[in-house]
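Hi U.,

Before I forget, here's the chain from the pilot set. I'm dumping it here mostly so it's searchable later in email.
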Amino acid sequence: MIERYSRAKMAKIWEPQNRFEKWLQVEILVCEAMAKQGMIPQEAVETIKQKASFSVERIQEIEETAKHDVIAFLTNVEESVGPDARFIHMGLTSSDILDTAFALQLREALLIIINDVRNLMDVLKEKAFEHKNTAMIGRSHGIHAEPITFGLKLAVWFSEMQRNLRRLKQAMDVISYGKISGAVGTFANIPPQIEKYVCKHLDLKSAEISTQIIQRDRHAQYFTALAILAGSIEKMAVEIRHLQRTEVGEAEEAFTSGQKGSSAMPHKKNPIGSENLSGLARLVRSNCIAAMENMALWHERDISHSSVERVIAPDSTIVIDYMLNRFKGIIKNLVVNKDTMLRNLEELKGLIFSQQILLALVNKGCSRQHAYSITQKNSLQAWSTGESFKDLILGDQDVQHYLDKREVDEVFSLDYHLKHVEEIFARVF
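Structure:
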């Protein structure tokens, strides 16, 4: 399963306790800012900071009647503060608190995810260098193409995770905005200086302009970055699933002592981790669509986005956190069958060198069309009969007109295909 993984840290971000703590943090900062502007007494702020508290259970109890979470929260805080609570939430609308605090939660979650990605990249890099020169067949359309190394395959994955890391950092920047601008974003009852103070102390940027809410294109970009990341994980997981197929057998998920593969067939060792990741990626992608649907709201705001975000924010971040940790364990413990890779590489009796024969003939003065015909004729014969492609090439009089045995031997070499592996690795790492 998952090596030393616990979802507790990520899940805690979305628990009511953490959410209400952030709401209170924003409310207190607003009070501090208003006191500095001379809008409320400094003594009241000190009382609020000293006494303000809440109880999740009490908030939920009040909400049963009020049917409004922010009002329930404020009512409970007022119970702890007393008369000076009248200065809390002055001139604000609920979304001033909700959206600013939500940005803090999303950023907190993304910091964990970014760290997960870096940890996965470390494992991918280590595995890539371990198998930098582990030769295997490359495939296109599922069919044998030309030789690569397993390290190159892993380097491709590492490079993609670098791009995911950049996208996550961009999402972090886009989502790290707060707003304290009132009911329709005009600052009618609370001046812009309050927003500037609050956002600065929360290490957020002030939205250049807002309505009652921060605009949801920011959130759409955030969840799109997560969806692309999930797609990358699935892409890699699907490759492992293919490599573990009985007919391929080149790599497989580790099978632990006591593990069972099938209730009916004791011989089975299935790529269940990778299959699990394929399924979870679908959830994260569907949540991305929901985030995009949230962009179109009525006028300055409705609440159709709110119910969606209560689901997709914890679900997507917790699932991605899980996926990254699980896939890291799969890669770290991946069983790589080098002998099978080599055997599969030789399965087509040299057909994988067909392009090199074509190029060698052209370089010796043969027209491309004639060289293609010569090569294809021998390729199809080798394919249909199982004969050695190299033997057929050596016995072809048309080939002998251009290439001698030494030149043909040079073509049928893995070194030809893998001569730039070091350079590629230097570009990636």
